[in-house]
Amino acid sequence: MEKAENTKLTLPDKLYFRIGEVSSLTGLEAYVLRFWETEFKGINPKRTESGQRLYRKEDVELIYQIKHLLHEKKFTIRGAKQYLSAKRKEKKEKSISITFEEITSELYIMKEILNS
After folding, report:
1. Contact present, 63 and 107 (Cβ < 8 Å)
2. Torsion of CA 8, 71, 74, 4, to 10 degrees
3. Span of 51-55, 57-61, 70-74, 88-92 with lowest mean pLDDT
4. Domains, in order of start, for the chain
């Protein structure tokens, strides 16, 4: 079992979840999950040949986070979208910053090697 980040949701250790399983795990109706797919671009389940939705753990964790924002924090859908977008941007910027620092460090080491 794996714990979803910043939540109390415990997910079974498997790759994909059907819509009924996600509904049971999150306490949300299937029609809500389908609607949220149209509203939040981060929820993008794969489809089987028969059209059955298969959600990844990341999808389920995002759904739970959206539920928390909408139901507990009382965000509007628009507000939740903005919040999640800002978090994605912040995470991306942090990643870029770390990568830049790693490259700078490597260049410094190479310079030291070349100068010795």
Report:
1. no
2. 30
3. 88-92
4. 2-74 (1.10.1660.10)
